[in-house]
Amino acid sequence: MKGARLILFTTLFCLISAFHAHAAETCVKNPDGSHFCLSQPAQRIISLAPHLTEMVFAVGAGEQLVGVVDHSDFPPAARTLPSLGNYNQPDMEMLLSLRPDLVLVWQSGASPAVLDTLQRLGIKVWVSRGEHIADISVELRSIGLLSGHTAKGAREAENFAHELHALTQARESARKVRGFYQIWPQPLITISNRHFIAEAMQHCGIENIVGTSSSLTPTWSVEAVLRARPELIMTSPPARDFESWSRWTDLPAVKNNALVILPPDVLMRPAPRVLEGIRALCTAADRVRAIQISSDASP
After folding, report:
1. Structure confidence at residue 254 (pLDDT)
2. What DSSP string describes 40-81?
3. Do residues 208 and 259 share a domain?
4. pTM for this model (two decimals)
5. Are residues 145 and 281 located together in one domain of the fold?
6. Contact 119/125 with Cβ under 8 angstroms?
7. What's the average model confidence in pLDDT over 73-80?
8. Domain for residue 236, yes or no?
9. Are 83 and 64 in contact (CB under 8 A)?
10. Which end of the chain has fewer CB atoms within 10 angstroms, the N or the C?
């Protein structure tokens, strides 16, 4: 009888312990909706994308970062961390030597081979979607949770969402401004409405003249841009050959003096600094609207 009670007690103890262990897990959602869990917040984190590096610092977990990839240059403290090289082909030997308990990767940037290798080695890998501006708030919360900075992550997410809403609402009834974004001059590569940057433009009331396309970054022609007559043409550094648009003196963007070089990186990375890029876009669009109002008021 005592033996039976001992077995029952042991079984109950194991079940309760398992329950508490599960309850103590830190869980977030993957892009596919499945759950990703850690038994405790990560203390040794590797980021395999510059925007994820920015997010780790944003939630207050910068001191837990032990490795990054090339171009992880913000904040300045990120430049002092060991680099594993290219995000698509990181130095796996170095990665293992850093003994991470969490590796952050970008869904669009990590090669399947790298993901497969990490998972086969039993390393915890969390995948960031990072395709839409709305993902930024969600991922700030997730990285805050995974790194043990839940309150800071939630606060940064709320601040981001609040400021984005304020920027958008301020231009909700404003006139749409026709815009074109140049990624590369030759061939002329731009963005479709499916692209992250096009979403940023929409928050400022800028209508992308390219519209919807099967490609995120379609190739266009100068003739197509001239036909669409954008009022605003934008690019980001290094802004190669951007001044060549000036020769089309009849183009509304040239007449408006609205050939705009945006701050570097801020619109190219799905991280909190995208707000800087959106502010710059909104300022440019507001300026075009003001020129139009001034022109309409002239006798």
Report:
1. 97
2. S--SSEEESSHHHHHHHHHTT-GGGEEEB-TT--SSGGGGGS
3. yes
4. 0.86
5. no
6. yes
7. 96
8. yes
9. no
10. C
Euclidean distance between CA atoms 292 and 232, whole angstroms: 12
Integer Cα distance of 243 and 240 in angstroms: 8
Placement of tokens 């940023």 in the chain = 200
For residue 125, list its beta bridge partners.
103
Whether residue 178 is found in the same domain as residue 292: yes
What distance in Å separates the CA atoms of residue 79 and residue 70, rounded to the nearest whole number? 9
User: φ and ψ at 72, to 5 degrees?
Assistant: -80, 85
- Domain boundary residue, one of 164, 198, 215: 164
- Report the alpha-carbon distance of residue 203 to residue 201 in Å, rounded: 5
For residue 187, say if its preceding peptide bond is cis, omega within 30 degrees of 0: yes
Residues 89 and 142 grouped into a single domain: yes
Are 153 and 210 in a shared domain?
A: no
Q: Is residue 5 part of a domain?
A: no
Half-sphere exposure of 164 (CA within 13 A, CB side): 23
pLDDT at 9: 37
Residue range(s) defining the domain that contains residue 31: 20-164
Judged on CB neighbours under 10 Å (0-12, 13-18, 19+), 187 is: exposed
Residue listed under structure tokens 């749409």: 176
Residue from 192, 185, 255 nearest 218 by CA: 192
Whether 158 and 182 map to the same domain: the answer is no
Same domain, 277 and 150: no
Number of domains in the chain: 2
